[in-house]
């Protein structure tokens, strides 16, 4: 029977095919999925692909690639067709991976302890001591329960005869478990009926056991509840999405090194309410960056004194410091002997054949068989891309061999494996499957009962049919891995079935000072990009209305934009290119005060507190980022005034959505209060400087300028509904300065800001806003009657008070940062206040 699905699907004679047997028939465990795909219409599959793509974009699933212009927050690549593994086969993989985790854990204990493997010649000392991964300060350490590896991952590949081989061990801070979980949530909704009918094993049990394993070894006293945090290098790390995702799923605070401090060999989390002890650190930070005092002096990511706290047994670090040592592929050739010695067992899953060139016999073998080998760096820190010697010319192979012979200890050779292939859905053809090389990353975690293995893991496929190295950084994609069950599927969820009185929480929990600081700046940047977009939209619209002519209103808007740093200095009527300068301020990321820069600052601050934002909130931020990228690309093609105004309209609509999320979708905790304080301070500064600039250059007859001012303050509708006449100075000043019922008036900002500050002073000891209070009193002393009798004098007096108010608001921001985020002591604050 003809199979249109397989019209473009090749059968490779030297590759194992996950879906098709050697006779071309569909393997039994794939039959259900294949029949489902064969019966699906092109429209149904398009909808499923679109659903998966949409979920990835909406959820902000990203994998950052360093030094790639398209790498920042690059969307995660997911093929919706799962990799299917039958239960009997999985049982063998599970047992082998658990054994491998036990072995590597025992090796670490030996190398940092008695070093029997070195003494008995089962491991060459040069391989261990000759790499940066061996941390000498960790010698003699004994982690709680003798568990070094709390989380472990191994990359597996299938040989042409169908056997699984280990090709890389991940022992430092293995990634992929969070992406596997996100893949599962998406793919199980792409094929919900198949997922149920095939009885796919769920993943929640794995994460439950990880949480239990960490808590069981936490150094707690009495009935103290262990506090577990997830330590991340920050949002520029390539897997930062996963850090945020796992922290939220596991219920652990996401922290950076600066959030933690060590006092008397105890690790504490710095929060607004004081220091709170940390018992367990689940790290995603490389070994040598974790403690700048003893490991890597230039590290700005770690926690000074952490190693001392570990020595004192006051904190559990998972994985233990020094575990990155076993990430070296050169160790694979020595694992069978080590397994016999340490576990008394035969290694269940073989590693790919490996030769460390630091051994004379291995180097001789490499000389003779170089064309059949792939050459890699012996140590992870080398960042050496794999070199397939068979693809080189004779001269290039000679040069490669000379490099190996010059530094043999730095190279490892491995057998070239023809990777298995699995089907992916073609996006270029209707109802066609394509073949791509596939590998599987399997995860294990330490539990009180031994190592538990994730049922499935992160499957990865190459970018091209003949790809030899599967890597997300090389453009590869991922798959969900479905492990079938012979019996009932566990319905366990990490969510508690019921909560008791002790579980009730009415605060924001352990909010780190850094998280609150980023919420504060998120509020400021949210207002800043709104004000910038509004100013640019009004200015461009006025240029359209005047056909490019510089009217007093246009001149005033350009002057204000220049004063606020949105555009370069616009002084002088002969300054050319008004429209181009304003368009540049919309899209140029190098213009410090421009809109693009303000949006990027907003997104950076939001990225730091992603775990605090709702899914809907983050989706709007993701849309803002995509719109900015799309517009910037269009601007390179010289998009015009109309496109820019449309983009600004969209930006302001998103700004309104963000404001709504902040007011309606966030819990009223200290983090939210600081976010709102940041918004009010930024709006107060903008309104005060905008009105001061207008009043200093007052022309009472210029109604167009007054109307522009009302639009900038988002108060034009309010004014028209109240007065039904063209703008005049007195009602304008009353509405925008003194009317506290107007949420876009100066008085409105002061009223709300004062209420928040009083609570922060009462609960957190925030500094008194003395200068702000003085500026408010000065403002309140200005009578509106003066604008009837001597408008020019009254305007100048009000302008001076507004400038004073803007300076006081900026000073208040600095004082809050110093008090709550810099953790300065009283003497330092007094010195800085002089």
Question: Can you lay out the helices and strands and say which pair or pack?
Answer:
Elements: H1 31-39, H2 42-59, E1 83-85, H3 87-111, H4 116-119, H5 125-129, E2 151-158, E3 164-170, H6 177-190, H7 192-197, H8 204-216, E4 228-231, H9 240-250, E5 254-255, E6 260-263, E7 266-271, E8 274-277, E9 280-283, H10 306-311, E10 316-318, H11 335-342, E11 354-356, H12 360-369, E12 373-377, E13 387-388, H13 394-406, E14 411-415, E15 421-425, E16 433-447, E17 450-453, E18 458-461, E19 477-483, H14 513-545, H15 552-563, H16 578-587, H17 595-608, H18 615-636, H19 641-664, H20 670-696, H21 703-712, H22 716-723, H23 729-738, H24 746-764, H25 770-780, H26 786-789, H27 791-821, H28 826-833
Helix pairs in contact: 14-15, 14-16, 14-17, 14-19, 14-20, 15-21, 17-18, 18-19, 20-24, 20-27, 25-27
């Amino acid at each position: 029977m003809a199979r249109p699905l397989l019209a473009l699907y090749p059968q490779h004679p030297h590759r194992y095919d996950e879906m098709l047997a050697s006779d071309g028939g569909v393997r039994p465990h794939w039959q259900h999925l294949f029949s489902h795909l064969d019966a699906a219409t092109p429209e149904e599959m398009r909808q499923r692909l679109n659903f998966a793509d949409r979920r990835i974009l909406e959820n902000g699933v990203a994998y950052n690639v360093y030094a790639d212009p398209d790498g920042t927050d690059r969307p995660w690549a997911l093929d919706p067709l799962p990799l299917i593994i039958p239960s009997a086969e999985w049982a063998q993989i599970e047992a082998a991976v658990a054994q491998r985790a036990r072995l590597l854990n025992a090796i670490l204990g030996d190398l940092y302890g008695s070093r029997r493997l070195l003494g008995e010649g089962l491991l060459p000392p040069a391989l261990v001591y000759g790499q940066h991964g061996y941390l000498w300060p960790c010698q003699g350490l004994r982690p709680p329960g003798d568990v070094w590896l709390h989380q472990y991952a191994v990359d597996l590949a299938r040989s042409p005869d169908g056997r699984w081989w280990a090709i890389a061990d991940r022992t430092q801070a293995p990634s992929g478990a969070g992406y596997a979980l996100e893949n599962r949530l998406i793919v199980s909704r792409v094929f919900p009926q198949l997922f149920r009918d095939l009885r796919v094993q769920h993943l929640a049990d794995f994460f439950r056991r990880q949480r239990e394993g960490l808590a069981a070894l936490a150094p707690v006293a009495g009935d103290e509840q262990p506090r577990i945090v997830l330590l991340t290098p920050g949002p520029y790390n390539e897997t930062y999405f996963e850090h945020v995702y796992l922290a939220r799923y596991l219920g652990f605070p996401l922290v950076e090194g600066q959030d933690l401090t060590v006092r008397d060999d105890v690790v504490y989390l710095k929060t607004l309410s004081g220091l709170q002890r940390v018992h367990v650190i689940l790290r995603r930070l490389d070994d040598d960056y974790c403690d700048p005092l003893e490991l890597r002096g230039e590290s700005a990511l770690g926690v000074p004194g952490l190693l001392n706290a570990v020595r004192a047994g006051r904190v559990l670090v998972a994985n233990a410091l020094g575990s990155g040592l076993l990430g070296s592929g050169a160790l694979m050739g020595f694992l069978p002997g080590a397994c016999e010695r340490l576990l008394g067992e035969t290694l269940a899953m073989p590693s790919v054949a490996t030769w460390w060139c630091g051994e004379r016999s291995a180097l001789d073998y490499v000389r003779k068989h170089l064309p059949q080998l792939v050459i890699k760096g012996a140590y992870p820190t080398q960042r050496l891309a794999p070199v397939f010697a068979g693809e080189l010319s004779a001269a290039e192979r000679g040069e490669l061999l000379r490099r190996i012979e010059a530094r043999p200890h730095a190279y490892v050779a491995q057998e070239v494996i023809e990777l298995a292939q699995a089907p992916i859905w073609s996006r270029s053809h209707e109802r066609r499957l394509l073949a791509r090389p596939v590998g599987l990353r399997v995860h294990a975690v330490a539990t009180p009962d031994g190592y538990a293995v994730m049922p499935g893991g992160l499957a990865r496929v190459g970018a091209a049919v003949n790809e030899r190295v599967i890597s997300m950084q090389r453009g590869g994609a991922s798959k969900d891995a479905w492990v079938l069950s012979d019996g009932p599927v566990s319905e366990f969820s990490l969510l508690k079935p019921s909560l008791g009185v002790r579980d009730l929480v009415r605060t924001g929990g352990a909010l780190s000072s850094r998280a609150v600081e980023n919420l504060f700046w998120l509020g400021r940047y949210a207002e800043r990009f709104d004000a910038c977009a509004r100013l640019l939209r009004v200015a461009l619209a006025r240029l359209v209305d005047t056909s490019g002519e510089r009217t007093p209103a246009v001149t005033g808007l350009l002057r204000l934009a220049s004063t606020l740093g949105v555009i370069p200095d616009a002084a002088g009527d002969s300054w050319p290119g008004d429209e181009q300068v304003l368009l540049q301020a919309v899209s140029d990321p190098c213009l410090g005060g421009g809109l693009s820069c303000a949006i990027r600052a907003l997104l950076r601050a939001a990225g730091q507190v992603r775990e605090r934002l709702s899914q809907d909130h983050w989706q709007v931020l993701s849309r803002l980022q995509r719109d900015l990228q799309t517009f910037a690309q269009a601007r390179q093609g010289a998009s015009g005034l109309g496109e820019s105004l449309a983009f600004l309209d969209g930006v302001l609509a998103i700004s309104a959505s963000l404001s709504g999320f902040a007011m309606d979708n966030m819990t009223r905790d200290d983090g939210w209060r600081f976010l709102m304080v940041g918004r009010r301070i930024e709006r107060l500064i903008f309104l005060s400087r905008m009105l001061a600039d207008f009043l200093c250059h007052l022309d009472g007859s210029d109604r167009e300028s007054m109307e522009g001012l009302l639009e900038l303050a988002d108060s034009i509708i309010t004014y028209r509904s109240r007065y039904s006449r063209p703008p005049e100075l007195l009602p304008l000043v009353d509405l925008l300065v003194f009317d506290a019922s107007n949420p876009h008036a100066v008085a409105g900002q002061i009223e709300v800001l004062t209420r928040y500050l009083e609570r922060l002073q009462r609960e957190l000891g925030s500094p008194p806003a003395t200068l702000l209070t003085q500026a408010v009193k000065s403002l309140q002393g200005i009578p509106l009657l003066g604008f009837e009798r001597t408008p020019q004098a009254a305007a100048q007096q009000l302008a001076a008070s507004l400038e004073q108010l803007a300076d006081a608001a900026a000073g208040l921001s600095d004082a809050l940062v110093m008090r709550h985020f810099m953790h300065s002591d009283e003497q330092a604050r007094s010195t800085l206040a002089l």
